[in-house]
Description:
CATH architecture: 3-Layer(aba) Sandwich
CATH class: Alpha Beta
Shape: globular
Largest sheet: 7 strands, parallel
Distance between the termini: 37 Å
Structural class: alpha/beta
Amino acid sequence: MLKLKSAELGRMSVDEFKRSTKLPLMVVLDNVRSMHNVGSVFRTADAFLLNGIYLCGYTPQPPHRDIQKTALGATETVAWTYAHDIVDAIRELKDNGYKIWAVEQTVDSIPLQDFKPGAQDKLALILGNEVEGVGEQVLAICDGVLEIPQFGTKHSLNVSVAAGIVLWEVAKGMLEADRASNEVKS
């Protein structure tokens, strides 16, 4: 098996990325402390061509060397907005037609594998603080809660790892729904 070289990966330029059609999927980071986690989520958002990121509360914002170190330039491609209060960010997202889903462990959470987004759904996924998770006040105004099933003893994932898992699964579901709806139209 031959490994691809960087030049063979078909990477977009920054301008091509900015002009491309994005998935109608946003990620919201609320009070995430670690700059490395923030940078990692930027990189994941770039990889899956997300519409953008909201940074809320005391979540660090670019430009910062420690965010850039992990983001590898994704802060230049992925659109982002800062909101001091996550409730304001959620209100703005809802006003723009987004359904708001938290990633958290609750009594009513839906296992990630059972979540089936529609092709045209506009979704915003909230990830919370590394220790406290998504706050109760925020959970109360969400349209639903997704949970990553876990089977070991910890039942806890690093926020950037959780973001990677959830964003991939939801993006994949949106792309599959889009493909299925296009097949029906043909």
